[in-house]
Amino acid sequence: MIHIIGAGLAGLSAAVALTQAGHLVTLYESGPAAGGRCRSYFDRELNARIDNGNHLLLSGNRAALAYLATTGAAHTLIGPATPLFPFFDLTTGEAWTVAPNAGRIPWWVFSKSRSVPGARLSEFAALLRLKFTRGDQTVVETLAGAGTLYRRLLEPLAIAALNTMPEVALARLLGAVVDETLAQGGAACRPLVPREGLSESFVDPALAWLAARGATLHTNRRVAALRQDAGRVQELLTTDGPAPVAAGDSVVLAAPPWVAGTLLPGLTAPEAFESIVNIHFRAEAPPGPAGFVGLVGGLAEWVFVKPGIVSTTTSAANRVVDQPAEALATQAWAEIARALSLPGPMPPWRVVKEKRATFAATADQERRRPGPATALANLVLAGDWTRTGLPATIEGAIRSGETAARVLLDSSKTR
């Protein structure tokens, strides 16, 4: 039996990998539903189902796509047939679409219809500097001189990927993302979003797949402590009573870092976090060729359009998260209305503030990310905050679960 603490994407990924290997798993989730920050719910204020946050995947996110294929949910993602990234500059009113070509030789940078307007060819050399960054350089330090390309493409992508302002964000984490996507050519850059919602893609199919193979999910069951003895976890102390950990059992701790730290005193883990603000409007809008648009120069950074719902995302949002919700919604709607040419007053809205959405992707916090193994022989860690080599993303969370599963499987072979 494998006990998994936390049923977010890291925990679900570990559960899927371990179940594939023939193990029986039990998941313990402190909340009322699985999915963590990657889930959908019905909002009564809007009378609509919305995602807790907006997430954009790329076709180069191999672990995420493999996870969806395993759980039978690959068909639930949609996107343009070719890489398309529409943008609108709120300062100048210009609109353009970045459209990388499929191959690895980036001839798209020479095409005015595919590249960033106003960007010089010399500015693209910044991408090569990203590839070879190894130290503690920040994104701003590494991309110095990128000019228009930086403001209209690289800065928005950096903030979205790292959820940390570029002045302090670690460049090599952005480099890892670029290396697996843009550097691989447009074939690895096709944008993908859930057809319905995050739960319908990443959570519900996985739970059904696991249940069909004997897995158990306990919701509203918080693990408050771990009873340890002889270098092993012997028992999970939960709000519904103790859960014994038998001699051959193992435990995956896939909770957020602040929870993991209470269960494992002395654990070194990220301790500084960044917010994300998502704003959902009950409105109809043309989805455009990609179903989203990036905004430059405003509060709203990305706008996602689904039937009946228009949503914005503002990442690295510690700078705005404490502002009144109505002020944020008013500003975001004005930006959306301008970018999408929407008439009329602001429709019903909902502001969702995640104050500890991800760890701050700085050099200091990167050094605090632990690997999967712990001092306890039958306990491993999973989570996008562990040492995945990526920032805190869906791809990183799913990889962390796979890594935790692999460590347990390897250790079982040596017993």
Describe the structure.
It is a single chain. By secondary structure, the chain is of the alpha/beta class. Among the domains are: 2-43 and 198-271 and 362-414, FAD/NAD(P)-binding domain (3-Layer(bba) Sandwich); 85-189, no CATH class. The protein contains eleven helices and 20 strands. The protein has a seven-stranded mixed β-sheet with strand order 8-7-16-17-18-15-19, with helices on both faces. It has a five-stranded parallel β-sheet with strand order 10-2-1-14-20, covered by helices on one side. The chain has a three-stranded antiparallel β-sheet with strand order 5-9-6. Strand 3 and strand 4 form a beta hairpin. The model has no long low-confidence stretch (mean pLDDT 96).
Chain-wise SSE layout:
Blueprint: E1 2-5, H1 9-20, E2 25-28, E3 40-43, E4 48-51, E5 57-58, H2 62-70, E6 77-78, E7 85-89, E8 95-98, H3 125-131, H4 139-142, H5 147-162, H6 171-180, E9 191-194, H7 198-211, E10 216-218, E11 223-229, E12 232-238, E13 241-244, E14 250-253, H8 257-263, E15 273-282, E16 292-296, E17 302-306, E18 309-314, H9 325-340, E19 349-359, H10 363-367, E20 379-381, H11 394-414
Parallel strand pairs: 1-2, 1-14, 2-10, 7-16, 14-20
Antiparallel strand pairs: 3-4, 5-9, 6-9, 7-8, 11-12, 12-13, 15-18, 15-19, 16-17, 17-18
Helix pairs in contact: 1-7, 1-11, 2-11
